Amino acid sequence: MRLNLFWKLGLAFFALLIAVLLPVDYYAERTLRRDYERAGFERLTSIARVALSSPPPVSSFSTTSRTPSPALREWLTKMASSGVRVTVITSDGLVLADSQSDPQTMENHAGRPEIREALANGDGLSIRHSVSINGDLLYYAARFAMPSGPPIVLRFAVPLLTVNDEVWAFRRRFWLSSVVMLLVTGMASLLISRTFSRRVERLQSFSRRVAEGDFRPIDADRSGDALEALAVSLNDSATRLDRAMRTLREERNLSAAILGSMVEGVAVVNSAERLLFANEGFVGILELDSPPQPGRSLVEVVRQTELIEAVRDVLKGAPRVEAEIVTGTLRQRFFAATVASVKATENSGAVVVLHDITDLRKLERVRRDFVANVSHEFKTPLTAIQGFAETLLSGAMDDPQNRVRFLQIILEHSRRLARLTDDLLELSKMDADRLALEVDRVSASQLV
Predict the structure, then answer these.
(1) pLDDT: which is higher, 172 or 8
(2) Which positions fall inside the Histidine kinase domain (predicted)?
(3) Shared domain check, 145 and 267
């Protein structure tokens, strides 16, 4: 990480600096070249004005001989002493004299652009390659009107090599200073990028510590830049995250304590029918040897098909399913199972709650037995009363001996029904906690 970021910043700075220097060099070279060319033409123009103000004697020109006269050679030497090349050309392009070449070896110059322009406009400029001296020159031609006959063209030239030398000298100085600047700024940028990368590494190490659960704050630099603001922001985030994690842990511990202390069995199943959580009540109800590991399949833990089907119905989309399961063989226990759907942002599942209803079922069985017994106790006297009453109505009323006996039996069973009714009323009062305590004197011999 250090070398990667370090070199990235350093190379990026170098690339940016070179990207700035290259166009600067390009435009500076073009501007300098134009300035030197303009200065060269201005120099040639000044020399041409001097030459036109003091032209060679008219008698020194000969349109028939290409050998310059002594007066013309003297004039050429005088003009060439300023460092320029001077050429005298007729209007038809014939070279009469040249300060650097033999005019007899020079070709016709009628097609030269500066000559044509000078004959047409009075003066002409051009930059081109010279065949005579095999080099690039700046040319300035001026038309000189003869008293009689066609005009003569006086051409002045300076080597372009001088301009190139000046430009290259400037470029050498420019690049030398640029290299020095690159070295100085490069070292400074490397030091800055190294410091920057180390600070970034500290922030990265801090974020790694926070991810591992270490929320100790990082010492922020007093640089006042964006990295310091980032470090302060990360410290604030770590503090809030630490507070949130503590709250979540407390809530988780509280939930675990509540679920662990519940008598009811509670379990959480995900959409893949795998147990995510089961409290001690759930383990005890299903008589498991040990708490199931999170991720185990529901069918591996639960043997009650009613409970499995209820969970599957909820996972298929039912919001709530209630069922009843029975555990044990010799000693059966009854549980009411409630399965409810749980939907999170991305995952869904079901919550299973098992409530022990064994006592309720026992009470229901006792109640059924009690009703059956009471019904039997009521049926015996009622049957006797009904039977003897029907017998009396059938003619036994006329038999004095049996009539009295039958009526006594009816009276005895009626009293039995009254006693049963009084007992039921007493039981009802006991169940409603409304039975009044009766205090009475009894003989001790009756209790022994």
Answers:
(1) 172
(2) 373-448
(3) no
* Distance from C-alpha of 281 to C-alpha of 356, rounded to nearest angstrom: 10
- Residue 338 belongs to a domain with what CATH number? 3.30.450.20
User: Domain containing 104: what range?
Assistant: 26-166
Phi and psi angles of residue 220, each rounded to the nearest 5 degrees, phi first? -75, 140
Q: CA 238, 243, 244, 250 torsion: positive or negative?
A: positive
Contact 122/144 with Cβ under 8 angstroms? no
Identity (one letter) of the amino acid at 228? E
Shared domain for 60 and 162, answered yes or no, is yes
Cβ atoms of residues 119 and 89 within 8 Å: no
What percent of the chain is predicted at pLDDT more than 90? 0
Exposure on the CB side of residue 58, measured as CA atoms within 13 A: 8
Give backbone dihedrals phi and psi of 411, rounded to 5 degrees, phi first: -65, -40
Distance CA 409, CA 389 (A): 10
DSSP assignments along 209-238, one per residue: HHHTT--PPP---SS-SHHHHHHHHHHHHH
What would the mean pLDDT of 83-105 be, rounded to a whole number?
A: 84
Please check whether residues 288 and 377 belong to one and the same domain.
no
Confidence of residue 161 (pLDDT cuts 50, 70, 90): low
* DSSP secondary structure code for residue 101 in this structure: S
Which residues, in sequence order, are CB contacts of 118 under 8 Å at separation 6+?
Answer: 124, 141, 142, 143, 153, 155
**What burial class does residue 286 get, using C-beta atoms within 10 Å of its C-beta: 0-12 exposed, 13-18 middle, 19+ buried?**
buried
What's residue 63's pLDDT?
57
Are residues 292 and 344 part of one domain?
Answer: yes
The 10s digit of each residue's pLDDT in 253-292 is: 887 777 777 778 888 888 888 888 888 888 888 878 777 8
- How far apart CA 293 and CA 365 sit, in angstroms, is 38
Query: Which residues are paired to 188 by β-bridges?
Result: none
Is the dihedral angle over the CA atoms 131, 133, 138, 140 positive or is it negative? negative
- The answer to whether 124 touches 158, Cβ cutoff 8 Å, is no
* pLDDT (tens digit per residue) in 69-89: 788 888 888 888 888 888 888
Number of domains observed in the structure of the chain: 3
Question: Token pair for residue 415?
Answer: 């009293």
Cβ 157 vs Cβ 137: under 8 Å = yes
Selected residue with higher pLDDT from 18 and 86: 86
* pLDDT at residue 224 in the model: 66
Q: Same domain for 44 and 159? A: yes
- Other C-beta atoms lying within 10 Å of the C-beta of residue 383: 11
| Mean pLDDT confidence for 404-415 | 82
pLDDT for 266 equals 87
